[in-house]
Known about the structure:
The protein is of the alpha/beta class.
Amino acid sequence: MHADIILNACSSVGEAVDYVRHFITTPIVKIDEAMAEEASSIGRRIGVVATVSTTLEPTVRLIKKKAAELGRTIDVTEGIAEGAFEALLSGDAAKHDEIVKGTISALTEQVDVVVLAQASMARLVPQLQGVRIPVLSSPQSGVAALKRALANMR
């Protein structure tokens, strides 16, 4: 398709993207890579929130990989927002949001930074005013990384 660059917006397939990078010349930016690096540089105790394990596990591995690249030792605490995905599938976005926010709140006492493993959860960040630690989501940092990569191509 002659794209200049590819943005992979799905954390669940990030490891497949790492594999594919070796076979194509088009650069690929993973939406969650910059977020994982930022989280690894902010604190040693990182909480990761997801609504499904298929996103949680690859995100945790990515954060650990980025921490290792930075020479940092980290501890990751995983938080599955139980029932949130099912609530969203049944059309109850409000219940989904409350479950996710509750999972984030539960982690804040244990970690230095919280990572939202799914880009779809980014819309909740403005609703987390009472949270006293950084809560990172991938869309903002991922698009910024995409812009930098495009600028470097010119």
